[in-house]
Amino acid sequence: MNPLSTLLSRLALSARVRTATHVLGLTQIIGWGTTMYVPAILARPIVDDTGWSRTAVFAAFSCSLIIGAVAARPVGRIIDASGGRTAMAVGSGLTALGLLVASLATTLPVYFVAWAILGIAMRLVLYEAAFTALAVAGGPDARRAISVLTLYGGFASTIFWPIGWAIAESFGWRTTFAAFAALNLFICLPLHALFLPKAAPAGSSGASRSETAPRSDAILKDQDRNFALIVLTIAFALLMYVNSALSAHLIDTLVAFGLPGGTAVSIASLRGVGQVAARLWEILMAAGLQPMTLCLVAIGLTPLAFLILLLGIGALTATMFALAQGASNGLVTIVRGVVPLLLFGSKNYGALVGTMTAPALMAAALAPALHAAAVDLAGHGVAMALNAAAASIAFLLVLVLAMRLRRRA
Length: 409
What we know:
The chain has about 400 residues and is an all-alpha fold. It contains 18 helices and no strands. The longest helix is centred in the middle third of the chain and has 35 residues.
């Protein structure tokens, strides 16, 4: 079988989950592209037009992540009950509302209100919500469906950064927000309302658990379950911190270490290439891996990326770092959906993922500011060393968990 045929066979989904996966794939591209990726392209035009400080503009975004962290668990419970359809349709409406308010904002308080709305809306429409909808619809196909879904999501910035930039350059940032609101209202909302499962079918939780979870993991005692939940929550929060810090500061860091600005931008963008490549690898070659093994690979690639920098920061090592760290982030997105499902089952999956997501969102919100403070106090080298330490601790925690679960098998 040639590689293309292999890829297509691995991407094939059963009828029970196919429609939901592809619908969610499209809405994830729009959802991520019109919310999380917006500050990167609109912050400068907003600052130039309004006179607001760059710090204030990004503070509104950070506040939205903190609000989302607080809302993550109750939102997860709502999605558990609704099966995704109602909650994600409402989320699309709220996303449109938040973006519309942002387009009309003439004062900073109104702009902050817009992002407060978006903070709740993003929890209803982005990955964690979509993973829960697939856990309801997918049963034993949920792992593959989640992998395919994240492959879609990897294209969000590739598609929406150029689109958003072009609209902003031609018509202004307010029109960009308004256009993005229209996409969520007239495309995402109807798709969520019409094509997602309405609620979990009776008995699905037990079936999903027995069919999708490895036997040793399906009978975790409460002590092991709680230990696994705590370890994974901390590890994912540490990785989200590192990824958020790098997303905000990697270009400046590479420039500070001597790379030209254009080269630094090009190399930093390779993180997206590594992300998509890793997700393709997972679909093609890693479907048979145990969830904890995949988790170790995903998290372990980030400390490995930092080790590469010990060879010296130049164009080659920086490229290898960007690809490896991007691959890690691409796989971590998958394991954040798959590992809880396979270890704990689909019962109360949304609330469980919400519990694990809240600290990760808080870490992501604080990371850019904390990294900047570390740079101001001790320089880029120390700030990067702290990121490396956080990633290494995350890997060691997951390694301890994997060894504990193996002994229980």
